[in-house]
Design brief:
The chain is of the alpha/beta class. The protein has three domains: about 5-40; about 70-275, P-loop containing nucleotide triphosphate hydrolases (Rossmann fold, 3-Layer(aba) Sandwich), CATH 3.40.50; about 280-450, Ribosomal Protein S5, domain 2 (2-Layer Sandwich), CATH 3.30.230. Helix 7 crosses helix 8 (about 365-380). The strands form five sheets. Strands 6-5-7-8-4-9-10-11-12 form a nine-stranded mixed sheet, sandwiched between helices. A four-stranded mixed sheet has the order 13-14-16-15. A three-stranded antiparallel sheet has the order 2-1-3, with no helix packed on it. The protein has helices at about 75-80, 100-115, 125-135, 150-160, 185-205, 225-230, 330-340, 365-380, 405-415, 440-450; strands spanning about 5-10, 15, 35-40, 90-95, 120, 145-150, 165-170, 205-210, 230-240, 245-250, 260-265, 270, 290-300, 300-315, 320-325, 350-355, 385-390, 390-395, 400, 420-425, 435-440. The chain is elongated and about 75 Å long. Helices cover about 25% and strands about 25% of the residues. A hairpin with a 7-residue loop joins strand 10 (about 245-250) and strand 11 (about 260-265). This is DNA repair protein RadA.
Length: about 450
């Protein structure tokens, strides 16, 4: 038998060290270095082993064995690609109280209503607590099997006994593998539990959904290898002050990894929102000064949102700049461009810029809408409610091209907007049925925005 030696390895990045340290020098993580036993290699090579099954040409494998099945929730299927693939392992991570368990219980109900069996394993709550939530959200079905277990071996026994097509484990941090060292929720335990569940999914064809916790930084708790072991990684996001919830794809071996699904948390459960653009608009027939409408891209999804600005004269030496839902540094840059290039005097005024409905936008494509909203408020001249503005603003006052301009304009046309202001020189084909005006700088954008309302001068 080969001799073993003691080494130390970082559970996050895999860096191997000669002695224990509190902080990994490679990735900078604290408390991630564990002691491991490394066998000393007796020979340079390893002996060959006769395979149990011979390798075959790829054309002999049936692709229909991995066809995705719909979950019954359109927004979730959108993020997954086209549904759940048999034998796949999905990791759903999110902050406490965001609604992960409620969403998965609704998924189990939709799955069971199609005549398929779902097994729900809860390690954080009792079976009675889960039943109460199911009563409240209407997720009671005889094809849903429920078990309150935290021992991995018992969970595998439940899976063998029930033979479900979908198994939900809530959560992976509460599962305990008796053959592995470490505390519950630790790096070693999470890796062992996940490895066993992935092996179960691949060998039996059961689709498994794992619920994961997140750290204070928003990253998935546990070793970084956890995300490499699973097939799909989803992030469930939401603001406690808003009912809107979003499922965002981070990794997907069966589809696009930048899709977004929208949901709304209500008292009777969680409901999908196929058309979320209406949540980010202030519905009013007449225009209001200081308001501009734009279209942002969240992954592959176009969302129409509204930017509101308020400019108020002040006598204090340092005027206030308050920004909500936007990048404060980028808003400050746009204010400087407006004052330097177009003479919009905001240096001695308090400026407040915010999005509607709790929408968070970080991309530069909404620069033009921010500039028009601030300029509209300074002169107290409302912009037409039927116009959207898309474009990045440079320091010279130019309007630069943005990605996905055609898809953005198409979304605006679908919602009934009649005029779109876009950067000049876009290579994408614009849809018909909406008037598109290409502009090269801020001055041209201002004139285009108010072309139907007479002259407009800052």
């Amino acid at each position: 038998m080969p001799k073993t030696r003691t080494a130390y390895r970082c559970a996050v990045c895999g860096n191997q060290l000669a002695k224990w340290v509190g902080r990994c020098p490679e990735c900078g993580e604290w408390g991630s270095v564990d002691e491991v036993a490394v066998p000393s290699a007796a020979k340079a090579g390893s002996p060959a082993v006769v395979p149990t099954s011979a390798a075959r040409p790829i054309t002999e494998f049936d692709p229909n064995t991995s066809v995705a099945s719909s979950t019954g929730i359109g927004e979730l299927d959108r993020v997954l690609g086209s549904g759940v693939v048999p034998g796949s392992v999905i990791l759903l991570a999110g902050e406490p109280g965001v609604g992960k368990s409620t969403l998965l219980l609704e998924t189990a109900r939709r799955w069971a209503e199609q005549g398929r069996t779902a097994l729900y394993i809860t390690g954080e709550e009792s079976a009675g607590q889960v039943r109460l939530r199911a009563e409240r959200t209407g997720a009671v079905n005889e094809n849903i099997y429920l078990a309150a277990e935290s021992d991995l071996a018992t969970v595998l026994g439940h899976a063998e006994q029930v033979s479900p097509t979908l198994m939900i484990v809530d959560s992976v941090q509460t599962m305990v593998a008796s053959h592995a060292d470490g505390v519950t929720g630790g790096v070693t335990q999470i890796r062992s539990v996940t490895t066993a569940l992935v092996s179960l999914a691949k060998n039996s064809g059961i689709a498994i959904v794992l619920v994961g916790h997140v750290t204070k930084d928003g990253a998935v708790a546990g070793p970084r290898s956890l995300e490499h072991l699973v097939d799909v990684v989803l992030s469930f996001e939401g603001d406690k002050h808003s009912s809107l919830r979003m499922v965002r794809g981070i990794k997907n071996r069966f589809g696009a990894a930048d899709e977004v699904g929208c949901f709304e948390q209500r008292g009777d459960g969680i409901h999908e929102v196929p058309d979320p653009s209406g949540l980010f608009l202030y519905h009013k027939d007449s225009g209001v000064a200081g308001s501009a409408i734009t279209v942002t891209m969240d992954g592959r999804r176009a969302l129409v949102g509204e930017i509101q600005a308020l400019v108020n004269e002040t006598t204090i030496p340092s005027p206030r700049r308050a920004v909500s839902g936007l990048d404060s540094a980028r808003v400050a840059m746009i204010l400087a461009v407006l004052e330097s290039r177009l003479g919009v005097k905001v240096g001695k005024a308090d400026v407040y810029v915010a999005t509607v409905g709790g929408m968070k936008i970080t991309e530069p494509a909404i620069d033009l809408a921010v500039a028009l909203a601030v300029g509209s408020m300074v002169r107290n001249r409302p912009l037409p409610r039927s116009t959207i503005a898309i474009g990045e603003v440079g320091l010279a006052g130019e309007v630069r091209r943005v990605s996905g301009a055609g898809r953005r304009v198409a979304e605006a046309r679908r919602l009934g907007f009649r005029h779109a202001i876009v950067p000049a020189g876009s290579d994408e084909k614009m849809p018909s049925g909406i008037r598109v005006t290409e502009v090269g700088d801020l001055d041209a954008a201002v004139r285009a925005a108010l072309s139907n309302a007479g002259t407009y001068d800052f």
